[in-house]
Amino acid sequence: MDIHSLRSFVLFAQLGSLSKVATIQCRTNAAISAQMKKLSEAYNIELFEKSGRKLTLSNVGESFLDVAKCILSLHDNVVEDIKNNDLVITIKIGVPSDYVGSYLLELLKYLTSSLKKIKFDLVILPSKNLYELWKKNELDITIYSAEHASSEGTTVSEVQGYWVANQNYNVPQSSPLNIVLFDDSCLFHKKAVAGLINNNFDFNIHSTTSDSRTLCNLVESFDLLSAMSKISMNKSMKIVHDDALPKLPLVYIKLLLSEKLKEIDIISLVNVLKPMTSN
User: With bands split at pLDDT 50, 70 and 90, how would you rate the model's confidence at 59?
Assistant: First the structure.
């Protein structure tokens, strides 16, 4: 039983628009449409019909609405009972390694003060992997990097990408650039490599890693150039200003909360996390 899809269905019945449901749920229109398709297939019924260009509930959909409300009421009552007994609720949180110091610790402090009887299951993976887990409903909270402001979730901050190196680094004038990057799912990795190729730079990729601490250690220990935001940098590193190097993009830091945590005020949570970001 997909509680998330049922809740979206009931919201649609109230609002009459999938786009309004998507806005309230902080999800994309496509994600809500996929939920509705999944719900129709699960119960083998046609829940919707078109009236001109407008999508409305079918007669079967109207009848199913009472069933959906009943299921949700039962689910919510069970969840409320769990909150009021001695069971410990596990909250699964996913963040990239470079956001652990910037966001994860503040997030844990906020949740610990807001909720009772909880424990945390922390998943540290690249943004692409975290978003895939989120789509499978395997995470309760996800903080990830997105290329576009319209990507799913509430925007916590926008961070600029920079070329960075150790304090003694100078950009070589004739020999190839030796660079070290996050793994190839990282937006800074993709844009850095594409920009160097477009600008006809001679470069070698020394190493790639999904772990920010390893990346910073490599930058600090060797004459290697890297691409990241200030969030990922250590104090012993510097931003390399060289007009010949291609400009790196803005990245949008997104926050996703599951229906399980609907009692959390997402605006308050975003306001807690925002000061942790420095461009």
Answer: confident
Q: Domain 162-248 carries which CATH code?
A: 3.40.190.10
Three-state secondary structure call for residue 277: coil
Tell me which CATH homologous superfamily contains domain 89-152+252-276. Periplasmic binding protein-like II (3.40.190.10)
Tell me which CATH code domain 3-83 carries.
1.10.10.10
pLDDT tens across 14-37, in order?
988 888 988 888 889 898 999 888
| Fold agreement (3-83, 89-152+252-276) | no
- For 73-121, what is each residue's pLDDT tens digit? 877 777 776 666 666 778 999 999 989 888 888 888 888 877 767 889 9
Q: What's the pTM?
A: 0.66
